[in-house]
Amino acid sequence: MNTAKVILEKKFRGGYYTPSDVASAITNWAINSPNQTILEPSFGDGEFIKAIISRKKTLGENIKEINKSLFGVEIDFNEFAKVKNFCKDVYKTKLEHLYFQDFFEWYKNCGREFDVVLGNPPFIRFQNFPEPSRTNALLFSESNGIKLNRLTNIWVPFIILSVALLKENGRIGMVVPAELLQVSYAGPLRKYLIDSFQNIAIFTCNELIFENAEQEVVVVLASGKNQKISGDENIEVLETNSKTELITRIKNYKQERKHKYVNHSTEKWTKYFLNNSEIEFMRGLKSDHRICRFGDFFEVDVGIVTGKNEYFLINKATAEKYKLQNYIKPIVGRSYQIKNEIFYSNDWRHLWNENKPVGLLDFNKLNGHIPQNVKEYIEYGELLNIHKGYKCSKRKQWYKVPSIWAPDAFMFRQIHDFPHLVINNAKAVSTDTIHRVRKKKERQFPQVLFYTYITAASAEIEGRSYGGGVLELEPTEAENLLIPNPNLLLDKSFNYDVSRKENGKFLLKNSQFVLKELLRFKKLEVDMLENIYTKLFLRRKNRN
């Protein structure tokens, strides 16, 4: 699939375009004098182009001068043509420096730098980042000393290239995914921005900016390219509650010198929502002998990717119809199916008897002769073209789902309150909506130790949140969660179970007992952990 088609589809036919009032506020901040050269590298529906022209007119430029200094690139021809025609009809100019091209190709013959770069990069994900754009983007980043992995989404190298095209002391104003603050693959970009600019302001907004799209974004205003004094850093994260407040804060923005010491190579910018004492405290926990990583005791893996859950996860009625009971493995695919912190065989049996699709078809032991009933179900799948799906078509025998093993415990990938560690007494498996957790050999870890403010606060920092107020943990992030060190508590008996019903109350009581009484954390420290968790938790929930 070509780049233009991907971007067109992934922007939901304009759903990811910046509203005009937000574009104007960013543009008015970025352009602070007449005759500056401006680049809009992905101008889409043209809101930034309109804002740039308006700002330049306000600063006294005429259309002829604007025509010389305004450059734009757009890969979707329909949008390109619309903006060209609009400029011709409204401004009576063709804007000769608007280009219908791939940004990662266009820059090669650009031959100039710009005072300001403005815009809203495409938000398409890595699996839809087509060639040759992907290779061009990664090679360019690498040539600038920035190593990106191939899971990187397109907006990351897009910003890197935009910064590279800035003049000394240049400014950039961009609307980017909130993942900038919190995903691992954006780590190299975070460090690059810090190293490149004297001042950076990041505006968050609790109201979703894009209509009809659940994409949470932040506004990045950065100034003083290559003017940073060695050892000095100045970055602010400013929270706003509505689009109106966001626009007002951008219009009235003045840089304040607020120092927060975050390691940009290893730490996410989520920490900028904390104060310095909280940042230092959370960092210090990593070297505290009373604290370990969850990954020291457990391995966390994704659940099973079947290729088509609607086909491979069947209910009791389907199993009876095709006589497939002997090929069933218990499976859970939704968090609501696990109601407590221990999942028993009876819990699974109850779901099965309710005719829920909690039976995974495991045909891996079929070799040679295939029974007629199984053959009929396989043929039914082929009638539905299941075998032509991406995952299934890659298998030697499309109907044999790989990686079927039962974990010791489950952990939800998406979290509403705090992480849950569910003991798997049913020997069930899970789909990829629920992570599989298995113990490392000879490592003992009482389940109750997982439920303290240390792990809850750590999850808010390690994970990433989205517009719906949900926290998401990938396996590596889950393994990085901080937990109380069980080796210091081997002589302690925990004669109580985790209570899902009490939820937040249990977290509070258990934190007081485990952290304060057993591990001798000070009351002030336990209170700080509670405040860190609560602050970050409420921040993501308020964006729901």
UniProtKB/TrEMBL annotation:
Gene3D superfamilies: Vaccinia Virus protein VP39 (3.40.50.150)
Coiled coil: none
Keywords of the record: Methyltransferase, S-adenosyl-L-methionine, Transferase
EC assignment: 2.1.1.72
Domain Type II methyltransferase M.TaqI-like: 94-204
Domain Type II methyltransferase M.Eco57I C-terminal: 267-488
GO biological process: DNA restriction-modification system; methylation
InterPro entries: DNA_methylase_N6_adenine_CS, M_Eco57I_C, MethylTrfase_TaqI-like_dom, N4_N6_ade-DNA_methylase, SAM-dependent_MTases_sf
Keyword RNA-binding: no
Catalytic reaction annotation: a 2'-deoxyadenosine in DNA + S-adenosyl-L-methionine = an N(6)-methyl-2'-deoxyadenosine in DNA + S-adenosyl-L-homocysteine + H(+)
Pfam families listed in its UniProt record: Eco57I (PF07669), M_Eco57I_C (PF22837)
One term of GO molecular function: N-methyltransferase activity
Family per similarity comment: Belongs to the N(4)/N(6)-methyltransferase family.
PANTHER family registered for this protein in UniProt: DNA METHYLASE (MODIFICATION METHYLASE) (METHYLTRANSFERASE)-RELATED, DNA METHYLTRANSFERASE YEEA-RELATED
Full protein name: site-specific DNA-methyltransferase (adenine-specific)
